[in-house]
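Hello K.,

You asked for the raw outputs rather than the summary table, so here they are, unedited. I folded two proteins back to back in the same session to keep the settings identical. This is the first:
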Amino acid sequence: MATKHEQILAFIEALEVGDKISVRQIAKELGVSEGTAYRAIKDAENQGFVSTIERVGTIRIKKKQKENIEKLTFAEVVNIVDGQVLGGRAGLHKTLNKFVIGAMRLEAMMRYVEPGSLLIVGNRDQVHKIALEAGAAVLITGGFDANDEVKQLADERELPVISTSYDSFTTGTMINRAIYDQLIKKEIVQVSDILTPLEKTQFLYSGDTVERWHEHHDESTHSRYPVVDTNMKVVGIVTSKDVINAGDEILIEKIMTKNPLTVNERTSVATAAHMMIWEGIEMVPVVNQSQKLVGIISRQDVLKAMQTMQQQPQIGETFADLIANQIVEKEENGVESFTCEVTPQMTNHLGTLAYGVMTTLVTEVGSRVLKKYKKGDPVVENLTIFFIKPIQIESTIDIRPRILEVSRKYGRLDVEIFHEGTIVGKALMVAQLIDRH
């Protein structure tokens, strides 16, 4: 039987896109406490089919697919620009295809405005009306209001008209940054992208016997299975080691490993990989917010996904990418080293190389060296850095890594950082080496 939390989530998901939701309404309609209703609404927001907007409330939105994650909803725009919704609230769940800054003559502006776009413009009532008639939402900058005719038209067309106190340039920059951040998120491969779904997953119930394990094994040749209770909640893992010397009539719950490690669909593949390698696990159950089984991932699935990720171009550059792009490799007298210029973006408020950037530089250089020495993917396990002298802005530093030890699973390096021939930092890095095969 579904829990109250699950019943509320199902109720919310069944609502029409654009419907307003409140804690009091949910509590009254489903006969639950307001605390239970509040927790379920927050869970729905985390899962992406509810959005809370200041001064508007909580509304049911269309859950964005992975391929459309870079598109913002108008509800998200309201939160980004600290906006106020003047009209067209029923359209807040819609996504914008692009935004146009209206700092031009009307004729030129309308060449760029199209259905599904967002026009960012100041106090120009006629422009607001024409944009809505063309199927675009409107974001009014400078804190200005819209006239009643525009608000009425926005409600009729279900196209939001939003007001913000920011100027057009700042507003455009904020929205552009949000889209850019979404692009980076799109490139992060999650467990949901690689899992074997429930309908293709073999699992056992805690009340099954060892005989059932043997039936699964004969059919699939797999040796590990998640164990669930009657509500499909994961309660254990059973492997070939557990069933050795166990009679066919023994219950699975008597021999299984209880409280197994699990991941959810939104866990990144990199996090799952580190956990599986560190714990020496071959298979991990994937669960939802209610800890119910939704599928599994195997070590092989994870490693294959990580290899694919490394071969794909990154659409949105992260800070780590920008720092890595500054590193230049060189070799003198058979000794490999790396140089890097300290750009303004890499410094702290004192104008010296930031600690976090130093960590990224050492990690990147160390990983490059280990990849050359041994075919595998390094995952940093321990990093100790000694800052000997501050490194000034626009300095060029030499980074000289030296391999101390490499085994089948681990690599240890000593890294020295020089500026103008003087040592300014040292680091000791230990990394796990994940076999690509």
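The second followed immediately with the same parameters:
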Amino acid sequence: MRTVSGIPGFLAFLVLVSCKDAPQTQHEDLAQNQEVHWTYTGENGPEHWAELEKRSHCGGKHQSPVNIIDIQTQEDPDLLPLDLHYYGQVRIHEVANNGHTIQYNFEAGDYISLWDVRYDLKQIHFHEAAEHTLNGIRYPLEMHMVHVNAQNEIVVLAIMAMEGESSVPFTFLEQYLPLDPGETKIIDQNFDLNTNLPANRDYYTYKGSLTTPPCTEGVTWIVFKEPITVSLEQVKELQRLMPLNNYRGEQELNGRVVKVYESPYN
């Protein structure tokens, strides 16, 4: 597997919800509601999740993350540009370290519209290194933006981050760290999600799952083709302040097709 040039070698390389508890809307929270203490390494690591979570989907055929290979994707004329309703005034209520990731929980307001269905933003969280790989490349960081509709169906927007220019939004988010595992801090500040999005909104999409137990399937993934940039210092700061290598390895597509939307104006 290749890595992004310029990223420190010690990164292992890979970077939002219960179908019954929509207000939780967080796949790590889901896992905490289970009594099994899963981990990312050792005997409770990803290769054993299906054994630990007997009633989970972790052994299913439509799991996430996956390796997205351009030449194997399929253009779909029915795909449309993303209809994002991020108004720049949504408030982050709190940030929490749940032992698996750093998660920022949002108050109601921002949402996306897919196929004329509203999916409300619930939270964002991070994986180091990235979970999805693009053409075999694992980026140092992946941000997941978790959205849920009125029927508790989940859409996750995934954004890769690579080393480059410093990110002002990341500086804002990092100022509320560090957090000890299990610790929560109230933020109650506005945050403009638009500043964390890539300029190019082309994307891949496929049906998959939550990437932590119970690995619930039926999740719609939208993975931006273009990464954003963060400085090396910001990557190192996140490494210091949050759990490292909190990513699940590549899952088989098992016949699934990853579709791609490319704007004709790019």
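The chain has a mean pLDDT of 86.

Happy to rerun anything if the numbers look odd on your end.

Regards,
P.
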